[in-house]
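Reminder to self: tokens first, then the designed residues, so the page reads top to bottom the way the pipeline ran.
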């Protein structure tokens, strides 16, 4: 019942840019199962109403479909795509940004014993679960506001808080709750993730980033790998390659220059790691992304047949 109305609302209110009149709420409508593309997750709650999607993070693969949702509690580099979508049955998805301040406010309002304590190692940075009827109901009521614009300013924040509470008190609650805890392990790892993202072109020592995050080197390395499915150096490489692909897609045909710009001193290493990540060398991928045929390139690696 809820999924039927959710699909109808998403279909009616989908825009080409994915935005809505409700701050922090996005709608996806995809009519083809395109090849995987690289992106950052953000901290987000993403619910599938029709179709299916696959995300890869490091060596982990996450599949979720209609009636399931994904929570990303850390902004992570992923490769993903809708695996079920067509013009006749477009894939439909709902997304809502998870704000640490909003999580913290709800945690302060919760009565003692309402939520189990967060213990043990930090939860995975990405997790998939089935959506409960209560959660689907709240999402539907939020989207109904798009048809009553005068209600959005007053009611949307209330329903968004309800959705957040359903997440905090649900199966993936530990991951969402840690977003609002300033001294949680997830908060320390998130601080390191932001630093690496902001300084991805620079070499660094893991010991220095661990110190900046306020953790011992061994605890930092263990927790970073648990949350991101990668070592800090592998994470930096993912960021570099994602940024390089974005630059190549936008304008640059100077593959060697792009590699240097994202932090690679060796053109051959850049080309080798790019091809390992995306399946083709950078010059060939750039031409495909821009819909052109490669003419000249700084890419020292021959194209795959």
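Designed residues (305 positions):
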């Amino acid at each position: 019942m809820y999924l039927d109305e959710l699909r109808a609302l998403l279909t009616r209110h989908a825009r080409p840019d994915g935005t809505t009149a409700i701050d922090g709420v996005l709608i996806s409508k995809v009519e083809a199962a395109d090849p995987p593309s690289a992106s950052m997750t953000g901290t987000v709650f993403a619910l599938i109403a029709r179709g299916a999607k696959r995300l890869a993070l490091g060596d982990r693969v996450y599949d979720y479909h209609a009636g399931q949702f994904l929570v990303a509690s850390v902004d992570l580099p992923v490769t993903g795509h809708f695996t079920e979508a067509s013009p006749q049955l477009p894939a439909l998805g709902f997304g809502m940004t998870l704000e640490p301040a909003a999580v913290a406010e709800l945690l302060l309002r919760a009565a003692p014993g309402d939520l189990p304590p967060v213990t043990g190692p930090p939860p995975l940075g990405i997790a998939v679960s089935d959506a409960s009827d209560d959660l689907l109901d709240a999402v539907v009521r939020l989207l109904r506001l798009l048809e009553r614009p005068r209600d959005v300013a007053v009611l949307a924040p209330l329903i968004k808080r309800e959705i957040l509470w359903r997440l905090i008190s649900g199966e993936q609650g530990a991951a969402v709750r840690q977003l609002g805890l300033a001294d949680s392990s997830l908060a320390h790892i998130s601080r390191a993730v932001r630093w690496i993202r902001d300084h991805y072109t620079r070499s660094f020592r893991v010991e220095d980033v661990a110190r900046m995050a306020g953790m011992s080197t061994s605890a930092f390395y263990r927790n970073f790998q648990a949350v991101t499915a990668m070592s800090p150096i592998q994470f930096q490489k993912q960021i570099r390659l994602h940024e390089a692909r974005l630059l190549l897609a936008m304008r640059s045909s100077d593959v060697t220059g792009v590699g240097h710009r994202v932090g690679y001193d060796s053109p051959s290493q850049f080309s080798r790691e790019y091809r390992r990540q995306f399946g083709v060398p950078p010059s060939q991928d750039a031409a495909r992304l821009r819909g052109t045929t490669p003419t000249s390139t700084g890419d020292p690696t021959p194209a795959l047949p």
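Residues 149-168 form the longest helix (20 residues).
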